[in-house]
Each structure stands twice: as structure tokens, then as C-alpha cells.
Write a structure and sequence with these properties.
heterodimer, A: alpha/beta, six-stranded mixed sheet, five-stranded mixed sheet, B: mainly alpha, 12 helices
């Protein structure tokens, strides 16, 4: 037997029925009959997981990344035992704790206190364990004053805090976290991360699903990238995330089709003296704009890493765009980005009315070359944006 | 970093198909370890049902009492029922049967919707049986409350329960077995055939009239009696309850054995069906 905290996934496949819309009662009954007899049926199936095969050692923290519908949540459900695989074998040693979308376990008619005991047992906390941890849970959820109130009178923030607090005090061998880092206000998020870090330090295996790549990068040491139900990559978190980001940007680049009344052409980026762009080096973005009716606009240019939230953005007021081509060039003196793939975003607003001419959207890729990578951050500290700053350390007695 | 596995076939080799071996012992042990989950769910259901109601748990007693009165009125005034209860006041006669039936029917109907659309099913791992079983237990709480009223009713009727009432626990055991069996089967099948959710109340309503709840077993034609006991264990249970509580008799051995036998068969069948269907619950629910 493997040591506690090991997760072994062996040739797992999973399929769902593709929906064919309305069904007759007869279909349901015959489907039931096939289920009971175990015969194979002729229905249309869609594979959501194909050939998933990996092993996680105790104490490892693994992030699962991939676009929506790639199969991340299904995989976690199979690991937690809620779903059964179609083929293959899943073996998890030790107790599994899941920090999933927790609000569903909280019953609105019960008080906070009652919910702690009921939902706690549901998650697998024993009676004595719950008794010991009760005060800690209440303090963690910051609900000391409201604990005897029915949960339906709680604010939504209080509800999520309660659910998270109960789940956070499980002491599982394997902890599954599915998109819960976006819970509560900043203070509470920090508390959650602290709690996760404590759990990690006690040797728990962590499986984390998040679209927040920065959070994955900061928390996990290994990442598995799922695309279309298959494992695209499995390895050290930085390498896998870099590969995943590049893929997102490639896909976004292939889809660029500018909306709005301003047209952009001849988009290029280049570094010092027309060469490659390197970390902390000069960088220029240039393109031509045309507008059929002629516009007087404020331009925004931003740089992002996949998501729509820019790492930084700059603005230029009062640019006149006419039917003919207007050349625009933006020069950044030293671009504070580590090596990697990024995206240039663009938006334009009319000067007088503030009306949106071109909505905020990506217009082209930006590739930073060179070997400058960010230093590692302390575990479970979320990195918001990858900004590279030269630093000189002086350590003396 | 391993790069993508180059070629993945469209579907896995059929011989890889995951077949869960059903180990009854293991499943039962796991279920036993989940006792506290069931009790947690029961507490949650009962509390949430009765909290904020002024009368609270008193409703568990008021509902069968009201039902008793309504059916007594219907049978006496509207139906002109002629059957004999053997000297037992009709309300008391009905109350025993109605309590047993309410336990059965409320267990089955709430178990029927315990898996479909249950948000916990997809989120928290627990043996699946805990959801229907906790519904049976919640209905059991109500049934205990209405049984507690029984001595009072005897007092009002001015009679004592027969000295044979020690058979009571045996009959309750048969009733619980049958109820758990049907609750498991119905909850599992409802996941796949949703129509059962709407059809179930009708079927249960019909069951109330087909089971000797509102009339004694003697009203069933002689040649169908044994068959009806074999198919419907509740009938045998209710008949036995009346015999041991009212008539100072041991329950009819044939009927009781038939009821016990069929409920055990139902339990095995229901459990196996549940286990068989269980692997797909999270996919379709």
C-alpha cells in the first residue's frame, strides 16, 4: 500500500451522454434497463476525460489548469469518489477533504451553530473533533455575534465564510480545492491562504483547480494542464503554466477580429534597434489606424498575460483618426516584464462624449525573450501580475 | 515536463471498462461508519422542517390525528361503511393503520426525491445510501411521535392494549425493512426515470386504498388475501398490529411470515438495484 496522501490515477476515461434533447419515457426506461443489465448501448457519448494517468506523492501540491470544459472539475469529482470513472482505476490513500463550492452544504433554515455540526459531520469531521474545533471554526469565520442566527439572515459573504471555515478545519490527507480562492474580502482571502499554507506544511497533498494562474503558480509546485479531456502537460508549475499561457495567447491571436469603427493594420512590436524585446529593455508597439467617418479619440494601450486584466495600461488623449492611415507608435523605455508571451490590448473612446468607439480587446501578441524569470515567492502568496524589477541585495552584519 | 501523449485513441479498449465489484460486506461496513452522516442529515431535515413553526414537532402528531378524523367521518357519514372492527372504536382502528402507512409513504416519497437534484450528491463524498436512509429516519421521527399518542387514544377509547402487544417490535421491524427496501429502489430509479417523481404520489395514494388501512383484511376476498400479503408486506404488518394491539392475538403466522419474507427479498433486491445504479448517479443527477 502506498503511504497516506498518495493519489494514483490509472488510465482513467470518462464519458457523458451527449444531450439529444427531449426523450420519451420509453427511452428512460430502456436506459434504466441497460444500466441494470450492464449492456453497452448505442447512444451518443462524448468523452470528457481521455487517458488520464498520473501519480501524486504525499505532500505534493498540484495545480490543475485548462480552459472551461477541459475536464478539471470532472477529474476532481472522480478523485473525490463522487463520480465513477468509465475505465481505469483511482486510488486515494487517506481521508479526502474537499474545499469545493461550499454554499450548497449550508442549510438556510438552520442556525450557524447547527450548520457547523451538521455540515461538519457531512464532510467527515467526527463529533469529538468538531467539539474541539468549534471555537476555532467560529473565530475563523468571524461569526461570533451571528452564530445563533439562522443562516438565511446572513449576508452572502457570511455564508461563504461559514462554509469555507467548516471545510478548512478538516485535516485530510488529500485536500481538494476547486475555485474557492475568490471567496470573501481581501482579509478573508488572506486568511484562507494562510490556512491552506498551514495545511500544506502539515504534509497534506493539495489538489487545486483555479483559473487564477497566478494563484496556481504561487501555491502549487507541479501543474497538470488539461485540454479537451486529455493531459496536455504534467510537470513543474512554471513550465506548464508558461506552456498553457502561450497556448491561450496563440488561440486569442488567431481569433483577433477588431470590433468597432476603428480599423487597425500593420501591427508590429520590436525591441531596441528593431531587435527582440528583452526584460527591462526598450520596447515599441506600432500600428496604423483608420476610421471611415473620422474620429477624435482617446487611445488606451495595455499589456496583459492572457486575461483581460492588464498588467499595466497607458493612455493618450486626443488622437485624430481619419479615413487615411494614421501611424501610431508607443515606446516603452524599459519593459518590466519577465520572459514570456503577453498580449497588447487596445480601446478607444470619443473625446467629447466619452462614447466607446472600440471596446477593450486584444490586438496582437507581445513576446519578451531572454532568460529573466521571476524569483519564487513564498508559498501561498498570490502574485498579482508578473512585473520584473531589478533588485540588488546587500546583506551585512 | 512530459509533453502530450502523442496519440490517444477515440475510445479506450473495451476491456479496460471499469466494473465495480460489489462487495456487500464492505458496502455495509462503510454505511455503518457513516451513521453520523445519517444522523446529521436527519437532524438537519427535522430541524429545518419544524424550526420557525409555532407548533413545531406537534405537527407530527396533528397530521395523523386529523387524517384519522377525516377518514372516520368519510367512512361513517359518506361511505356508510359496514365492516366490523370487532368492537374497536373506528378512529382507533384507523389510527394504527394510518400511522404505519404514513411512515411508509412519507419515507418513500421523500426518498424518491432525495437523490435527484441533491446538491450534496455532487459535492461531498458519502455512501449514496445515506440520502434515502436519512429520509426514512426523518419519517421515523414523525412516526415515533404519532405512536407516542397511541396510549392516549387507548385511554380516551377506554380500553387497554391487548397483552399480546409484545409482538409490536417484530412487526415494526418488518415495516422498516420493507420501507427501506422500497425507498432505496425508488430513489435510485427516480434518478433515471424522472417521471416517477410526479407519478409517485399517485401510486402511493392508490396503495393506501389497496392496502387494508381503512378496512380490515377480512374485506379482501379470501382467495387474494395471501397473494396480497406476499406482494404488500405493509398489509401483513397492519393486520398483525391490529391483532396484537386490539384482539389479544398473536399476529397471523402465515401473513406475518409472508410479509417478513417478502420484505427481506425486497430489501436484498432494492439494495442490489441501488448499488447497480449508483455508479451513474453523479453523471445524470
Amino acid at each position: 500500500m502506498s503511504p497516506e496522501g498518495t493519489v494514483t490515477i490509472d488510465h482513467v476515461w470518462k464519458r457523458f451522454r451527449s444531450d439529444r434533447g427531449r426523450r420519451l419515457l420509453r427511452d428512460h426506461v430502456s436506459r434504466l434497463g441497460r444500466r441494470v443489465s450492464g449492456r453497452e448501448d448505442a447512444d451518443q457519448w462524448r468523452w470528457v476525460l481521455r487517458e488520464i494517468d498520473f501519480k501524486i506523492e504525499p505532500g505534493e501540491s498540484v495545480g490543475f489548469v485548462g480552459s472551461n470544459g477541459a475536464g478539471k472539475s470532472t477529474l476532481l469529482k472522480i478523485i473525490s469518489g463522487v463520480m465513477f470513472p468509465h475505465t481505469g482505476r483511482v486510488a486515494v490513500e487517506g481521508r479526502i477533504g474537499a474545499l469545493i463550492e461550499v454554499a450548497s452544504g449550508i442549510h438556510p433554515e438552520l442556525t450557524g451553530k447547527e450548520n457547523i455540526s451538521v455540515f461538519g459531520t457531512l464532510l467527515g469531521l467526527g463529533k469529538s473533533e468538531l467539539g474541539r474545533k468549534y471555537d476555532e471554526i467560529v473565530a475563523f469565520a468571524e461569526l461570533e455575534d451571528a452564530i445563533n442566527r439562522q443562516v438565511k439572515f446572513y449576508s452572502s459573504g457570511m455564508k461563504t465564510r461559514l462554509g469555507f471555515a467548516i471545510a478548512a478545519f478538516l485535516e485530510p490527507s488529500v485536500l481538494i480545492v476547486d475555485e474557492v480562492l475568490a471567496v470573501g474580502d481581501q482579509m478573508f482571502q488572506q486568511k484562507c491562504l494562510d490556512r491552506m499554507r498551514t495545511v500544506l506544511h502539515s504534509g497534506t497533498t493539495l489538489l487545486l483547480v483555479s483559473h487564477d494562474l497566478a494563484a496556481v503558480g504561487a501555491t502549487a509546485s507541479r501543474a497538470i494542464w488539461l485540454a479537451d479531456g486529455t493531459m496536455q502537460a504534467d510537470g513543474p508549475v512554471d513550465e506548464v503554466l508558461a506552456g498553457y499561457r502561450t497556448a491561450i495567447e496563440k488561440e486569442a491571436a488567431s481569433k483577433i477580429e477588431l470590433e468597432g469603427e476603428i480599423r487597425i493594420s500593420n501591427f508590429t512590436t520590436f525591441g531596441g534597434s528593431g531587435g527582440a524585446i528583452t526584460t527591462s529593455g526598450p520596447c515599441s508597439v506600432s500600428f496604423d489606424v483608420t476610421a471611415p467617418q473620422g474620429k477624435h479619440a482617446n487611445f488606451f494601450i495595455g499589456v496583459s498575460q492572457g486575461a483581460a486584466t492588464p498588467i499595466f495600461a497607458v493612455r493618450k488623449e486626443g488622437i485624430r483618426v481619419s479615413e487615411g492611415e494614421t501611424h501610431v507608435a508607443v515606446d516603452f523605455a524599459g519593459i518590466p516584464l519577465p520572459a514570456g508571451g503577453y498580449f497588447i490590448w487596445f480601446a478607444a473612446f470619443e473625446v467629447k462624449t466619452g462614447r466607446e468607439i472600440t471596446p477593450w480587446q486584444p490586438i496582437g501578441p507581445l513576446l519578451v525573450e531572454g532568460g529573466r524569470l521571476l524569483d519564487a515567492t513564498p508559498k501561498a502568496i498570490v502574485r498579482l501580475s508578473p512585473v520584473f524589477v531589478e533588485a540588488q541585495w546587500t546583506v551585512s552584519d | 515536463m512530459n509533453s502530450a501523449i502523442p496519440q490517444i485513441p477515440d475510445s479506450p479498449p473495451p476491456e479496460w471498462r471499469y466494473r465495480r465489484a460489489l462487495r456487500v460486506g464492505t458496502s455495509l461496513r462503510e454505511l455503518g461508519r457513516s451513521r453520523h452522516i445519517i444522523s446529521g442529515l436527519v437532524v438537519r431535515q427535522v430541524r429545518s422542517q419544524y424550526s420557525q413553526q409555532v407548533l413545531g414537532l406537534a405537527w407530527a402528531v396533528l397530521a395523523p390525528l386529523a387524517q384519522m378524523l377525516v377518514f372516520t367521518f368519510l367512512l361513517n357519514r359518506v361511505g356508510n361503511a359496514t365492516f366490523s372492527t370487532g368492537g374497536v372504536p373506528r378512529p382507533l382502528f384507523l389510527y394504527v393503520g394510518l400511522t404505519a402507512w404514513s411512515f411508509f409513504s412519507s419515507s418513500v416519497s421523500s426518498a424518491g426525491s432525495s437523490l435527484v437534484g441533491n446538491p450534496l450528491l455532487n459535492k461531498v463524498y458519502a455512501p449514496r445510501e445515506v440520502f434515502p436512509l436519512s429520509q426514512v429516519c426523518s419519517s421515523g421521527v414523525d412516526a415515533i411521535a404519532s405512536t407516542a399518542l397511541l396510549p392516549l387514544l387507548f385511554l380516551v377509547a377506554g380500553r387497554w392494549p391487548s397483552s399480546t402487544f409484545y409482538w409490536f417490535p417484530v412487526l415494526v421491524l418488518i415495516l422498516v425493512t420493507a420501507t427501506v427496501a422500497i425507498a432505496l429502489a425508488v430513489s435510485a430509479v427516480t434518478v433515471y426515470v424522472r417521471d416517477l417523481r410526479s407519478g409517485l404520489p399517485l401510486i402511493l395514494q392508490l396503495g393506501l386504498f389497496l392496502t387494508p388501512i381503512l378496512y380490515p383484511v377480512s374485506q379482501i376476498p379470501e382467495q387474494f388475501r395471501a397473494l396480497s400479503m406476499a406482494i404488500n408486506p405493509i398489509a401483513g404488518v397492519v393486520d398483525g398490529l391490529r391483532a396484537c394491539l386490539f384482539y389479544n392475538q398473536a399476529p397471523d403466522p402465515t401473513y406475518t411470515l409472508l410479509a417478513a419474507g417478502s420484505s427481506v427479498i425486497y430489501l436484498v433486491g432494492g439494495f442490489l438495484l441501488f448499488k447497480r445504479l449508483e455508479t451513474g448517479f453523479a453523471d445524470v443527477s
